Amino acid sequence: xxxxxxxxxxxxxxxxxxxxxxxxxxxxxxxxxxxxxxxxxxxxxxxxxxxxxxxxxxxxxxxxxxxxxxxxxxxxxxxxxxxxxxxxxxxxxxxxxxxxxxxxxxxxxxxxxxxxxxxxxxxxxxxxxxxxxxxxxxxxxxxxxxxxxxxxxxxxxxxxxxxxxxxxxxxxxxxxxxxxxxxxxxxxxxxxxxxxxxxxxxxxxxxxxxxxxxxxxxxxxxxxxxxxxxxxxxxxxxxxxxxxxxxxxxxxxxxxxxxxxxxxxxxxxxxxxxxxxxxxxxxxxxxxxxxxxxxxxxxxxxxxxxxxxxxxxxxxxxxxxxxxxxxxxxxxxxxxxxxxxxxxxxxxxxxxxxxxxxxxxxxxxxxxxxxxxxxxxxxxxxxxxxxxxxxxxxxxxxxxxxxxxxxxxxxxxxxxxxxxxxxxxxxxx
Length: 429
Ligand code: ADP
Ligand code: MG
Fold this sequence. Notes:
The protein is α+β, with helices and mostly antiparallel strands. It has 12 helices and 9 strands. The site of adenosine-5'-diphosphate has 23 residues, from helix 10 and helix 12.
């Protein structure tokens, strides 16, 4: 039973490798095709290392397992054909088996590649069955070949190893692969459901969120009607009404942005100019909080992004920074060009966040502002920045302040096509 023992040893290592690989893949989301290819190639070399030599330069091994799995699941045809042939030459030289591999592997690969779309459309259990049947077919071909060329081989041992161990092996490995695929799909489904739930829940709470600022605004309108306040009082009431209505508007904007994702359209964005427009909108609330705004705009940077989304992200981020300094402070806004990236830095010396709070940023309804917060702003920021292919980095220390850094790929457009902006004009008063 020497061949069976070789197959069992080889299979045990394959199972261990598969389990380690699956744990790794599961942690690191889906494997990149190239990493999966390297993984399959190492499995093929292990199969060769544990192969059993028959006479006339023929070796029996479990290489068909990674070969079938790799092509049916990932369609990595050239890589697997090339690896199998090259590894054969490395392990056994240019023997008869090598020339047979040169002919048979592309042939099998093309058949498997052809049936792969049909295979992937089957149910999980059906796929495992198909894999076992394919492996049995290959075993029959292998044994027929040994018979045809009158190669001397221990018949019982080979039949047991090929029909039982190989089929069992491919069945087990296919089962593990299917389980991991299911868990990845389930994870994605749960994430999607969680997001949809959040949006639905948002719909229910939205009326509550809007009612508060509207009630306050109505209250001040009534005051204006009932009394005849002085001009100073009138303008004070009107500015409160404006800010309450603005906050109701922002709730609606954030909600719509999440519930109805629009088709992505990118425009040329003059970063400094757009940030300046955002700052202008937020000056009244900065003044209320006695927040001093420092802007370091040195040159005009250009990126490709969706203007509306860009606006909404920076309104939310800067508004949070202002709100984190209820007793005044400094908000520093910088734009830096770092090789191919434009880095937008928003720094505040406000209340900061604990590491736990930082990890919760972007979760729907996470807010430390009680009734005043909606916990939607950062959710919108994270979604939009991702949609605009940007990245977001947060550094925060509780009691000290927070730095948000948003990176976008810099857009190199010929300068004559774009309007040049004189940054000296962007002075906030
Ligand atoms: P909201 O502002 O309505 O509370 P957001 O989603 O905009 O909701 O923000 C979520 C939470 O993240 C805030 O309640 C706050 O605790 C925290 N946060 C966001 N930005 C800052 C910041 N610059 N400084 C301190 N905390 C922040
Ligand atoms: Mg906010």
